[in-house]
Amino acid sequence: MKKIYLLIFFIALLSTSYSQEVITITYDGTVANNQVFTSTSTVNQDITIRFIDTDQVNDFYTGPGGNASFADGTSQTVIFLFAGVNDGVNRFQFIHGTFPDINSLGQATRVGVAPNTYEFTFNPRAYFDQIPDGQLVTEINFLFQNQFGGGGNNQTVDMHIDLVDANALPSLSANDFIDAGIQAKFVGGDLVVKGLNEEATISGYDMLGRKLFSFKRSINQNFQENLPLPKNQIGVVRIESNSFQKTLKVVPQ
């Protein structure tokens, strides 16, 4: 595990702009159980897992269902992510969803017309929302399963992403947050930010952790913008600038 002190982490967070990391996994029968993939991200940063299944039948079944055939290049449109984190002691802690209820799990969607490539983009801190504030997180622990419920070639082996060790930032606030004169709240379908005077990145996620949008805005003391989130569904909004970071749990009206 890569160790960094909490102080160093916060200094880096305030002074550095990160690009989203993509972890590519080629699942070809050589991926061993409990194989570890190295990451340069922390639990608080967005990550994309790109999963490429080179054998759609034997190692992990992502082939067509119903009347579809391999000849027409089709395959499953989604596969399901069963995942937790390593708390520095044990793996698969603070699991998102309930196995084998696939509707409660994250969904990695097929990339374009590629018959065997899937991606899942998420913010681990928002996705694993049961992680306590300040909890050390060192890995993401996961497997993929198809719609047939796991077991045999209906699921992959256990895999792990070795994160840069960091403590989870403060947890979600419900719609409204005030700190050091900066106010962030959600009204109807609008994000309202007051007291911040710098550029910020605003990102939105659904409750499966999938990123819906991300854009930069120059915020000059008073900011209000309608966000493209699904109506009447729980979502997550993340605000990040050089001096301010906050995640809000919202229900757009």
Largest sheet: 9 strands, mixed
User: How many discrete domains?
Assistant: 2
Query: From the alpha-carbon coordinates, what is the Rg to the nearest angstrom?
Result: 19 Å
What is the averaged pLDDT score? 82
The appropriate CATH architecture of the largest domain is Sandwich
Helix content: under 10%
Going by helix content, strand content and strand pairing, the class is: mainly beta
Task: Return residue spans where pLDDT drops below 50 for at least 5 consecutive residues.
Answer: 2-18
Q: What is the fold-level CATH name, i.e. the topology of the largest domain?
A: Immunoglobulin-like
Q: What's the CATH first level of the largest domain?
A: Mainly Beta
Beginning-to-end CA distance, first to last residue: 43 Å
Overall geometric form: globular
- The share of residues in extended strands comes to over 45%
N to C succession of SSEs: HEEEEEEEHEEEEEEEEE
Features:
253 residues; Immunoglobulin-like; 9-stranded mixed beta sheet; 2 helices
Characterise this structure.
This protein is mainly β and 253 residues long. 6% of the residues lie in helices and 47% in strands. It folds into two domains: 6-167, Immunoglobulin-like (Sandwich); 173-250, Immunoglobulin-like. The longest helix is centred in the first third of the chain and has 10 residues, at 6-15. The strands form two sheets. Strands 1, 2, 3, 4, 5, 6, 7, 8 and 9 form a nine-stranded mixed β-sheet that branches.
